[in-house]
Write a structure and sequence with these properties.
With 230 residues, the chain is of the alpha/beta class. It has one domain: 3-Layer(aba) Sandwich (Rossmann fold), CATH 3.40.50. Helices cover 38% and strands 22% of the residues. A hairpin with a 3-residue loop joins strand 6 and strand 7.
Length: 230
């Protein structure tokens, strides 16, 4: 079997510590953020969900619990240790979710396979070209009329958000963050072909939730480029 590699950042080296560290550093806000993302995913019982950059599978498993017998939740991540942890969680909890070691810029799935694609706090780990390729792949595997939900770092709207975001970019030596901090995500989503790109939530002055659709506009939505930036 060929080795799966990416030039994007993965968190394989911190996989064992990821869950407790994130929960501690977020002062308990991690769960609330997951719930906000789930709200905007608007999961239907028969959805076929793909979670891009699923990490240890927290969001994938929460989504899987909301699916019916005809639904399916699949999570992919470039870090094999993250996938192993996610698979272990699914087995212990008895949740029928599927996890695969894969990279967002070259998804191992057929065209039009999923009704819902989610990406939570993933895109700031990859550079601009990989972002373009990843959104292109998300569009390819999403069925006509399917939904995209992308929650990630965005252009800061508060002083604390600005300081946190740009300090992270420089202190963590992570230039990939700059694309997000400059507010490029909604344009990249639209560039990939998605319709009705809309920002539906913005928290902590730094993180936004975007929704979009493939081919068909979401009910009551307007393009973010028409509605204006907040």
């Amino acid at each position: 079997m060929a080795t799966i590699t990416t030039r994007g950042r993965d968190l394989n080296h911190v996989a064992a510590l990821y869950d407790p560290v994130i929960e501690t550093l977020s002062f308990g806000r991690e769960q609330r953020f997951r719930e906000l993302t789930l709200e905007h995913m608007a999961i239907q019982p028969d959805d076929h969900l793909l979670d891009i950059g699923c990490g240890t599978g927290t969001l994938t498993l929460l989504a899987a619990e909301r699916l019916g017998a005809k639904g399916l939740a699949t999570g992919i991540d470039a870090a094999p240790k993250m996938i192993a942890i996610a698979q272990g969680k699914a087995m212990r909890k008895g949740i029928p979710a599927r996890f695969e070691h894969a990279v967002a810029e070259s998804l191992p799935f057929a065209d039009d396979q999923f009704t819902l694609v989610a990406s939570s706090m993933f895109c700031h780990h990859i550079d601009l070209e990989l972002k373009r390729r990843a959104f292109g792949e998300m569009y390819r595997v999403l069925a006509p009329g399917g939904r995209l939900v992308c929650a990630d770092i965005d252009r800061p709207t508060t002083l604390l958000g600005w300081l946190t975001g740009w300090a992270g970019r420089w202190l963590l030596l992570q230039p990939e963050l700059a694309d997000n901090l400059r507010g490029l995500l909604p344009g990249l989503i639209a560039e990939a072909g998605f319709a009705a790109v809309r920002r539906v939530a913005h928290v902590h002055g730094l993180i936004s939730v975007f929704i979009a659709s493939k081919d068909d506009a979401l009910p009551g939505s307007a393009s973010i480029h028409q509605a204006g930036r907040r």
